[in-house]
Amino acid sequence: MVLLLWWGLNVSCDNSSNTSYLPPDVKICSAKDPKIDECFTNSANKMLKHLADGIPRLNAVQMEPLHFPLLSLEHNNSIFPSLAFNISDTVHRGWKDVVVLRSKVNPNAHELFFVLYAPQYFVGGKYEIAGSIIGIPTEGTGDMDVYFENCTLSVTVRGRLEDRNGEEYYVIVDAFQHSYYEKFQVDFKNLFNNTALSAVTNKVINYSYRPVLDALTPAIDQVFAVIYGPLAQRIFDRVPYRQLFTDLD
């Protein structure tokens, strides 16, 4: 979803009169360019480097590290109905090394597809968990560290236009993400409210992490959507759609 944030930031100023607001190496792509996908991929990769430190004049938050206050999965959620999970005061690291591998852009149909790759991604914070994961009763409260390696995220976004006082704005209707993480390591302090049992559980998970990671991936995708989707939409709400790309039909 971070690319959505780039897409919104990239047009926070009119391309014809406010190009000085954008980093000079970022190019706005033409909807009529036969190589628009290549153009978009190249511009996205350049913009991601700037986003790592944040861009105050564009109201762009710092992405490396990214701080997020609270994420929750309540009981009876659609992914893990038997699990309640809260993580708070999280710090996310790894976006400085994110790259866009490829993209497919259809500006006139308001559709976007892209594939992101991150060699590593780290989340630290505090957790509270109660319920079961893949049939295993789980509970605890404490500090946590989660590490992902070789992360690939495929994201499809579809939107619509909404008229506001004579200007059309982009509204995200659907965003679908499919992720694959090659490696997954965790350190949950005080699982089962027992230090010794927590250490054993972490060791078991880290030794045979694949089934746990596969089960958790839908929830991980939901977390990323919760973090980055609203950030992107908030920026889209400020910018007329005609400024997203040049040469629209």
From TrEMBL:
Signal peptide: 1-16
Keywords assigned: Biological rhythms, Signal
InterPro entries: Haemolymph_juvenile_hormone-bd, To_sf
Keyword Signal: yes
GO (cellular component) term, any one: extracellular space
Keyword RNA-binding: no
Pfam families per UniProt: JHBP
One GO-annotated biological process of the protein: circadian rhythm
Annotated family: Belongs to the TO family.
PANTHER family listed in its UniProt record: CIRCADIAN CLOCK-CONTROLLED PROTEIN-LIKE PROTEIN, PROTEIN TAKEOUT-LIKE PROTEIN
Protein name (record): Juvenile hormone binding protein
Species assigned in the record: Gryllus longicercus
